[in-house]
Amino acid sequence: MAERSFRATVPSNIAFIKYWGKRCARTQQPANSSLSMTLSGWQSRCQARRYSEISGDHRFFFGGQEFRGQEPFSQKVFQQLQRITEETGFHGSLELKSENTFPTGCGVASSASGLGALTLAAVAACLDLDSFEALQEAGWSRERLAGLARLGSGSACRSFWGGFVLWEAEDRQDGRNVRPLYPVDWWPLTDTLIIFSEAEKAISSSEAHKAAWSSPLFAPRIAGIPEKMAMLRQALQDRNIAQLGPLLEQEALEMHSVMMTARPPACYLSQEATEFLAAFRRYRQKSGIPLWFTIDAGPNIHLIGEASAHQQLDIYLREEYPHLKSMRDSLGSGPDLSSD
Ligand code: PMV
Q1: Which of 11, 36, 52, 234 qualifies as a cystine partner to 15, CB 3.0-4.6 A?
Q2: What is the per-residue pLDDT for 2?
Q3: Residue 68 Cα to chain centre, angstroms
């Protein structure tokens, strides 16, 4: 057995147009195309090594603690390892050690970065290849890696590139359903995450994805995506925050409206978060601060804009919300792979 360890670092991403609802849960085909910004410092790191010749005897550690597949999140991990060993034709078992650079439950998409890093490290260990170039030569392009990671967590596929990344719902002939649109140096946007809750979600996003179709707002949402996507891409092309910002907010609130009107309904926003949003909008109207919010499946709020606007935000937060927790990250360059 090869003893070397493979280290994968995969960042989280924040969607500007959200993936909400699946066309097929088994193949994780999304109901709509989505577009995200890859982050930089909010990452998952996973170290994988071949450790036994017996198949199906994997060991998985997260944050130094061993998990055996009883909890929902580690069940996903073991299912993903099963897929990876089947796809790569590896017959032994792996030992995997994962960690996040951000606190779990803080509202950063840990399933995207976590399943992404696990997939990249595990495929590298199974094939004994330690660079994207070597994987590509062996038939494992970034698209293929992203496609496999997507089966573990849909949004993970967008974390395989830096910059701004598009995941298209329609099957493309060339298989490039996920691809980078603009590189990391295109427009250095920054994300301040305002943390209202670090608790586990009461309704998992997998359950809420399923319920999305029952909302009367879902069909009109899907019909409106192409136009919204075109406008958002134009705003990115022009690096125009005044054009991008209102689209971000409308999109996040639209997804939350679908969630709240589905059966069963999911309401992820807390009273504290909605009050903050109302107050922040009043402050923006008065001050003109060019920062705009987006929200994932949770109560925490991402404020997006150029770096200078975040300095102005710090003053506002210090004065108005001295006890609120927040974290900051910016556009990143994508995943990394090495061995030792
Ligand atoms: O990848 P999942 O199944 O955790 O779904 C993520 C969905 C959102 O984060 C709410 C939106 C998105 O596109 O990232």
Answers
A1: 36
A2: 52
A3: 24
48 touches 94 (CB < 8 A): yes
Residue 108 in this model has a pLDDT that exceeds 80:
no
**66 pLDDT exceeds 70?**
yes
Question: Burial level of 162, CB count in 10 A (0-12/13-18/19+)?
Answer: buried
Q: How does pLDDT run across 116-149, given as a tens digit for each residue?
A: 999 999 999 999 999 999 999 999 999 999 999 9
Tell me the backbone φ, ψ of residue 69, rounded to 5 degrees: 95, 15
Atom of ligand 1 nearest to the CA of 206: 3
> Strand 189-195 and strand 325-330: pairing?
antiparallel
pLDDT at 1 over 70: no
Ligand 1 contacts CB of residue 155 (under 6 A): yes
Q: Identify any residues that bridge with 48 across adjacent strands, giving them in sequence order.
A: 6, 96
Amino acid at 261: T
Query: Distance (Å, rounded) from C-alpha 109 to C-alpha 13?
Result: 7
CA separation, residue 87 to residues 83, 106, 119, 138, 313 (Å) = 6, 33, 11, 13, 47
pLDDT digits (tens, 9 = 90+) for 7-41: 999 999 999 999 999 999 899 999 999 999 999 99
Locate the ligand 1 atom nearest the alpha carbon of residue 109 and give its number: 9
Query: Which tens digits make up the pLDDT trace of 247-272?
Result: 999 999 999 999 999 999 999 999 99
| Neighbour tally for 274: CB within 10 Å | 14
113 lines ligand 1 (CB under 6 A): no
